[in-house]
Design the sequence.
């Protein structure tokens, strides 16, 4: 059994996770990274993707995050996400509707700024959809 450490996942809306975990997989800007107890200190930006964790009790949990950064220390890890949601809390029908609306917004974009924002939002939604399929 791996040694446990403190992990917190925080979004602007609320604290999603504050628990003892054995490992956390983070979608870092340079690629996925697995964090375990006694990890070397590092700070990294987080790209949109899925955070997977194994609790000290052995349960697996997954969260979709949309950017942010992680502060990793030998005694713990804190991930401050721009936005985050538990995979189990996602309404698939609502997600499909939002993806369709985002595609329409992208098609209707009249300038580069609007197009870029619509593309980013659509990418976030498809990341979320991919997390549900995994």
Sequence:
């Amino acid at each position: 059994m791996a040694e446990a450490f403190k992990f917190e996942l925080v979004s602007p809306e609320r604290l999603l996770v504050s628990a003892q975990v054995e490992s956390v997989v983070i979608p870092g800007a340079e690629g996925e990274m697995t964090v375990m107890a006694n990890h070397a200190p590092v700070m990294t930006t987080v790209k949109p993707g899925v955070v997977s964790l194994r609790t000290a009790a052995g349960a697996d949990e997954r969260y979709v995050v949309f950017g942010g950064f992680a502060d990793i220390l030998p005694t713990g890890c804190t991930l401050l996400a721009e936005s985050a949601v538990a995979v189990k809390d996602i309404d698939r029908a609502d997600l499909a509707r939002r993806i369709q609306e985002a595609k329409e917004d992208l098609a209707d974009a009249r300038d580069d700024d609007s197009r870029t924002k619509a593309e980013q939002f659509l990418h976030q939604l498809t990341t979320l959809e991919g997390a549900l399929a995994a």
